[in-house]
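Run log // design_07
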């Protein structure tokens, strides 16, 4: 698993200079790269603003602003929720696929960052390589937002924390259990558990844990994050059970991976170990019969559609924080 992105735009890349495109920059751009990089006050502020928009706030702080979205991997929720969020906040979007842009012919991420910064007000990127997002952020003079990398998926987990709070109240008093691959989504859950102060119990196969660097970071930060190989132990009396696909984008699907993950499938038996009113979350897309049974994801404890909806709301908070 690739390392975690820890990029901030260096001041040297900003320089305070007036750009040829006529966008003088007062200071470093406010990127949204990974949940571990921000304090809980900022993170809560983004969620609260998203909640305000969800509850009817209707100002348009991004009038005249444009978000470019670079996709190296497919997307339904991220693409559509960012497009709609920008429009509802008064702004606009441009979608750039790597295959039909010069990125596909080898133009560097750094040069792409420099050029796009002259045209648009923020850049969202979904990439196979966290290093590319870091490079983009290092060279862009406008905010860069992480739309998923192989290492993390912070916008998703901001929506998940918003959903957890809506369903269960103050999140610091909740226990979240993860059963499955220790993938990019699990990493952002670890970041969120530490920053928001809830307990996170991860159950992952021995061969598919989250990166040890992330767990070490959680320990150093005093987070309540544990790792086991026993889903029943992780889920016992949890308030929320979460899982994700067994085969993330860019990962090879094979029978050994399937066999490793099969004991971590969230089914009715496993859900019954959690609190009776526990919720089930999944970032989607889901494969019924693999990481979760249809009875669970389509059952009464599942909140996956509210969770997907909250991508739209929380991203308004993130966009306004970055660009507004
Ligand atoms: N959950 C999520 O990011 O979905 P998409 O891949 O459809 O954007
Ligand atoms: N872990 C999944 C999340 C998809 C939104 C992946 O990276 O494909």
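design_07 sequence
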């Amino acid at each position: 698993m690739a390392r975690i992105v820890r990029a901030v735009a260096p001041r040297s890349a900003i320089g305070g200079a007036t750009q040829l495109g006529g966008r003088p920059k007062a200071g470093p751009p406010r990127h949204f790269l990974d949940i571990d990089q921000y304090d809980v006050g900022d993170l809560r502020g983004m969620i609260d603003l998203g909640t305000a928009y969800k509850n009817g706030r209707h100002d348009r702080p991004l009038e005249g602003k444009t978000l470019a979205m670079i996709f190296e991997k497919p997307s339904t929720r991220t693409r559509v929720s960012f497009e709609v969020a920008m429009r509802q906040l008064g702004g606009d979007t441009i979608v750039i696929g790597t295959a039909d842009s010069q990125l596909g012919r080898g133009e560097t991420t750094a040069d792409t960052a420099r050029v796009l910064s002259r045209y648009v007000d923020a850049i969202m990127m979904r990439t196979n390589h966290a290093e590319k997002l870091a490079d983009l952020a290092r060279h862009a003079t406008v905010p860069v937002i992480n739309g998923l990398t192989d290492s993390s998926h912070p916008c998703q987990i901001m929506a998940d924390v918003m959903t957890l709070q809506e369903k269960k109240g103050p999140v610091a008093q909740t226990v979240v259990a993860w059963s499955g691959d220790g993938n990019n989504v699990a990493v952002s859950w670890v970041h969120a558990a530490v920053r928001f102060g809830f307990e996170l119990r991860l159950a992952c196969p021995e061969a598919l844990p989250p990166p040890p660097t992330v767990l070490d970071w959680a320990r150093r930060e005093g987070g309540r994050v544990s790792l086991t190989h026993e889903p029943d132990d992780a889920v016992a009396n949890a308030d929320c059970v979460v899982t994700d696909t067994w085969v993330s984008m860019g990962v090879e699907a094979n029978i050994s991976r399937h066999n490793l993950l099969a004991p971590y499938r969230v089914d009715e038996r496993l859900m019954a170990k959690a609190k009776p009113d526990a919720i089930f979350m999944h970032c989607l897309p889901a494969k019924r019969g693999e990481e979760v049974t249809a009875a669970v994801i389509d059952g009464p404890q599942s909140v996956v559609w509210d969770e997907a909806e909250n991508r739209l709301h929380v991203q308004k908070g993130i966009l306004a924080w970055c660009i507004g």
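Residues 148, 153, 183-185, 244-245, 248-249, 283 surround norvaline (ligand 2) (CB under 6 Å).
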